[in-house]
Amino acid sequence: MSKKLSVPEIRVTSAEQQGIFAQAADPITPLKEIDMNGATLVELEDIVKAAHQSFQSHLGDALQAGLIAGKALLMAKKQFTYDRQTGGFRGWLERIEVSKSTAYRYIELATNEPIVSQARTLSEAMERLAQHRAEQRALQAKEEKVEIKRRRVTLKLSDKRDQKLEKIAQNRGVDISTLMKEIIEQWLASQP
């Protein structure tokens, strides 16, 4: 027994089909057309949920778009050398109508992808970057403080001993601070 193919009763034109695809690609379109003045609380709840879901998904898309733009900008930046006539990379940004601050925000996303990859939205990614920058500044400040404490040693030597140290340092081909460091390290190593 052969099976008959069923033909749909309603045919759709290509223009109508494109409209259906566009509506499916942009879930906010049907929400724009709703008259909310006479909507019930249940209908408004559905509208809010659909709009919120669209908003959340678009924020995730914004983060992905920012990462892609940042990677492309990094690649483009490598191809530029500064030219007074064209302005180099910054001149190119002006020509493609992307502000310098936006471009560098995209670049920051791309260069810190491991930090922002767990974020669900662009704003969450930017918060993570801000927190990372603050942690890095605190860590750097702590390291600088430690290094400064380590370097600040004042020795009061007689002129004769100071000249002797300078002569020894010259003979070894190092500066006085390097010589002092070597002497102190040797002395510390000899201590029990």
UniProtKB/TrEMBL annotation:
Coiled coil: 122-152
Organism placement in taxonomy: Bacteria, Bacillati, Cyanobacteriota, Cyanophyceae, Synechococcales
Organism: Synechocystis salina LEGE 00031
Top-rank taxon, per record: Bacteria
Keywords: Coiled coil
Keyword match Coiled coil: yes
Annotated protein name in UniProt: Uncharacterized protein
Gene3D superfamilies: Met repressor-like (1.10.1220.10)
Record bears the keyword Coiled coil: yes
